[in-house]
Amino acid sequence: MQxxxxxxxxxxxxxxxxxxxxxxxLYIYDSSVIKRQLDRLTNSFKVKNLGIHxxxxxxxxxxxxxxxxQWGAGLDTVSIQEIWTGINAGFTPDKILYTPNCVGxxxxxxxxxxxxxxxxxxIETLEYIGQHYPGVKLCIRINPHVMAGxxxxxxxxxxxSKFGISIYQMxxxxxxxxxxxxxxxxxxxxxxxxxxxxxxxxxxxxxxxxIAKKFKDLEFIDFGSGLKVPYKEDDVCTDIEELGxxxxxxxxxxxxxxxxxxxxxxxxxxxxxxESGYFIVKTNVIKQxxxxxxxxxxxxxxxxxxxxxxxxxxxxxxxxxxxxxPRVYNIVGYICETDTFANNRVVNEIHPGDILCxxxxxxxxxxxxxxYNSRFRPCEVLIHEGxxxxxxxxxxxxxxxxxxxxxI
Length: 408
Ligand code: LLP
Description:
Elements (H helix, E strand, L loop, with lengths): L1 E3 L2 E4 L2 E2 H8 L3 E5 H14 L4 E7 L6 H9 L3 E4 L2 H9 L7 E3 L6 H10 L2 E4 L2 H10 L4 E7 L21 E2 L3 H11 L2 E6 L9 H15 L7 E3 L17 H19 L4 E4 L3 H4 L3 E12 L4 E5 L8 H5 L5 E3 L7 E7 L7 E9 L6 E4 L20 E6 L2 E6 L4 H5 L7
Parallel strand pairs: 4-20, 5-6, 5-13, 6-7, 7-8, 8-9, 9-10, 9-11, 11-12, 12-13, 15-17
Antiparallel strand pairs: 1-2, 2-3, 4-14, 14-15, 14-19, 16-19, 17-18, 20-21
Helix pairs in contact: 2-9, 6-7, 8-9
The chain binds ligand LLP.
């Protein structure tokens, strides 16, 4: 987003014009940022075969998926519904990974029939699939027991996590693989999101390499994701170029030892889409209390839950008054609960009616939205090659009643 002569714009399109056209609250995505991030990631790795699979749980609008497909990446999915969405967007099943957790075997069977790459993180499920679908290619998700991730809720590779098969259970997995002649073509880990320290990646990677040696027919090793993007100016973020260099070297020497070139997979969500997104809201009220000045906006945690759920930071700025005097606000939503986007935040002076913008609104924002308080979900606009496209309508009253049955 650029600020020129008091006006903010994306790819030359004025944000306040978009607000007039689509109203607020409004999600805007800049496709050029997604492409930039995909290129950065691709160029950071010096290996023969790199596979980037976009974790579409981060932002699942079909238009975003179509672009990512056009740009040659694959898809990482966690539910049969995400697989269907991916196929709908044009991904062929061989470009789709499916990494479910705690789902029933019936769903995994549906995925097998669709021909996507299955990734299993449960020993009994592995046994069932091995017995009923002999020969099907299976990846195993390992839990390497490392503590990684920006906060407790998004750390998933530690010993108390429900994800993955523990490294301590590998002897059992090996016995199963032998007994059922399982076709293990990949090993996988994902230790968390917003990982602050790149050393954690390489530490866990060594554990994964050790396990990979136990399987002779591998085609790929999947390092999951957790790449951290900046939320604030000068924020810690993953130095992807450095990580690419270190991991490529480790990977290439592993392949030499293994005797074959394998594919290196990554499954980024945030890294690709977080910075592409902006959430635009209108200030309804400025409310002065004895202790605080609140700026109350026409949205809430129903549209963007990350601050309330994880304590996440989203930079917020005043599009209507870019050079106003900086003042301190608690920026809050209209939901009938404590509904805080930011505490004691310095923003250029806000007046009722002013348009505020939240940064890093591409990942896990719209996709985690809800109708709480019977509010409509916002519309989504994509800016692509200098044009704006409405890619999801704002919800209407009919949408709230859609699946309700008046039974009495
Ligand atoms: N692969 C697997 C198996 C995952 O579970 C995830 C994210 C990813 C890849 C992508 O991770 P990323 O690149 O986005 O860090 N809602 C939380 C994040 C939850 C992440 C869930 N799994 C947030 O808003 O911070």
